[in-house]
Amino acid sequence: MNMSNMDIALKDMMLVDGAIGAAVVDYTSGMALGTSGGSKALDLGVAAAGNTEVVRAKMRTIDQLGLKDDIEDVLITLSAQYHIIRPVTGHKAKGLFLYLALDRDHANLALARHRLKNIEETLEV
User: Residue 2 pLDDT > 80, yes or no?
Assistant: First the structure.
């Protein structure tokens, strides 16, 4: 993925209502390739590594169940935040996922998921 495409994706994610942090993550390494936003309370490097484990575990489970399906997104609902994980489906970007943390009081979850889907689909690598 070239840097300008990643920068555009991160900027677009941060334009989602309620966005407090965004990352493009390589789940083979657990490293964030790019981040935007975040805070002391939301360390995006820690979030990238932790969410990598979530993606890997779910992919293992799908494989063990013999499901011929892909993860569209994973939603983690906290009392004050939504965390959305969306694996990138393009074959050239295999191994990446988008991560978006939202403030529940200022986010429209359905719209955020729709916007993240559009961002993922328009990513060029």
Answer: no
What band does 4 get if pLDDT is binned at 50, 70 and 90? confident
Helix and strand numbers, DSSP H then E, in the chain = 3, 5
Domain that holds residue 24: 3-122
Residue 109: is it exposed, middle or buried by C-beta count within 10 angstroms (0-12/13-18/19+)?
middle
Q: Which band of pLDDT confidence, cut at 50, 70 and 90, is reported for residue 94?
A: confident
Return d(Cα 20, Cα 26) in angstroms, integer.
Answer: 20
CB 22 within 8 A of CB 48: no
Cα-Cα-Cα-Cα dihedral sign, residues 20, 54, 85, 24: positive
CATH of the domain at 16: 3.30.450.30
Provide the number of structural domains found in the chain: 1
